[in-house]
């Protein structure tokens, strides 16, 4: 198993020929103002033996359908515990349109090794500690938070601009 960290992009990767795990710890985008960034801190993608187990929902569209744009970049669209109607970072459409986010989150690397990573994200007054541990036969994801853990099942996926797939 190879572990790789891309410090400027905030992506952690664990992979071999049959396994791929990418963990998102990305900064908020251009000068902490959003850009193409989503509210996906501590979300992940998982691929095992050629099959997508967990995947990022994609983007779908940018400007023609603002509601859909925000839906696809929302916290609840990603594989992370969430709180109803609370985003990791607030929409800042007044200043930056559909590409703006107002920074209300911070993320920290707690520990990182050959077969594990532990990170913490704070958004508003909420904290989430998430640990990914790769064992011989499984991936264990452990979440601890100061809020009730709720996991949404986002019903859409976009594998290209303007393409919408129900999953």
Range of helix content: under 10%
* Low-confidence sequence ranges: none
End-to-end gap: 30 Å
How much is the radius of gyration in Å?
Answer: 16 Å
* Number of β-strand runs: 13
Main-sheet strand order equals 1-2-3-4-5
How many helices?
2
How do the helices and strands line up, and which of them pair or pack?
Elements: E1 2-6, E2 11-16, E3 19-24, E4 44-48, E5 51-54, H1 66-72, E6 90-91, H2 93-96, E7 101-102, E8 105-112, E9 116-123, E10 126-134, E11 139-145, E12 156-157, E13 165-166
Antiparallel strand pairs: 1-2, 2-3, 3-4, 4-5, 6-7, 8-9, 9-10, 10-11, 12-13
Short description:
By secondary structure, this protein is mostly beta strands. The protein has helices at residues 66-72, 93-96, and strands at 2-6, 11-16, 19-24, 44-48, 51-54, 90-91, 101-102, 105-112, 116-123, 126-134, 139-145, 156-157, 165-166. It is 7% helix and 40% strand.
Task: Give a written overview of the molecule.
There is one protein chain. The protein has 2 helices and 13 strands, in the order E-E-E-E-E-H-E-H-E-E-E-E-E-E-E. The chain has 167 residues and is mainly beta. The mean pLDDT is 92.
